[in-house]
Amino acid sequence: MSQNTNQSNEQHGSRYDVVVVGGGAAGLSAALVLARARRTVLVVDAGAPRNAPAAHMHGYLSRDGLPPGELLRHGRDEVTGYGGEIVTGTATALVPDGRNGFWVLFADRRRIAARRLVVTTGLRDELPYIPGLRERWARDVLHCPYCHGHEVRDRPLGVLGGAAGAVRYTQIVRQWTHDLVYFTPPDTLTTAERTQLVARAVTVVEGSIEQLVVDADRLRGVRMDDGCVVPRDALFVPPRFVPNNRLLVALGCDVDTDGWVTTDGTGRTSVPGVWAAGNVVDPRAQVVTAAGAGSAAAIALNADLVDDDVRNAVRNLDHGLLPA
């Protein structure tokens, strides 16, 4: 089957067993498991992965240091090699089809039918507005010390503080360097937090950041509003994570008090027939974690389809139809 399908099974009078919305590690992992289980699977991929700016990914056993795009390319090849299909596009809505399944709707009025759904649409990073910050994102402005800390170890680093949990985050970043600066607005540190930072030789710089200083396409420092430049080679920024959960919320999936869609241990949402995996439900999931969650969701979903297959087979038998 083609990797870029222009016509869906629905246009030929059938529907997919599973449509996976989102073509990252979680979605492709789910699709791979399901395709190997001989399910008809379609992956809808908008082609805008969160980690696209990163040159390499880390912490993925046997794939450490691989460019993120390479992992996705291998994943697509594996999914299509087992008969799965991948279509480039953005789903605009997920709606029940009245047959114990769903329609996946597109902006161009296409629609694809599925018995079950896996939604792996990820999250987006909301960054504070500081001139130069967004442009350096995933290069020398970083968010995950476990993903990037080793690559900038023993260099002059900084942490953009002020948010809840930023001091603890700084203490984690401290594992990778002895030269760490914590940038924070004035009067935001408690006495205990200041003592903890001083105890581990973290320099505290209080004030407002005016902009990042970049030269020869490299971060050189952080300019404060008083004109002082603090030399730094990399800056860690704990972003605000926002789930790309619009499709799930519109479908009626339950969310927690922070707005994240709730699932059971396999990724099953509150809406029967719908699973979710990866960063759309778990902001802390790394690539390897998301892939594992996609696999777990696929196994649970396939078991649910088997139950459905058994019910259908028994009903057919009761109506005198021979087993297929």
From TrEMBL:
Gene3D superfamilies listed in its UniProt record: FAD/NAD(P)-binding domain
UniProt keywords, alphabetically: Flavoprotein, Oxidoreductase
Catalytic activity: [thioredoxin]-dithiol + NADP(+) = [thioredoxin]-disulfide + NADPH + H(+)
Domain FAD/NAD(P)-binding residue range list: 16-292
Lineage, top ranks: Bacteria, Bacillati, Actinomycetota, Actinomycetes, Pseudonocardiales
Domain of life (superkingdom): Bacteria
Pfam families associated with the record: Pyr_redox_2
UniProt-recorded name of the protein: NAD(P)/FAD-dependent oxidoreductase
Organism: Pseudonocardia charpentierae
InterPro entries, per database record: FAD/NAD-bd_sf, FAD/NAD-binding_dom, Ferredoxin-NADP_redctase_2
Record keyword Kinase present: no
Record has Oxidoreductase as a keyword: yes
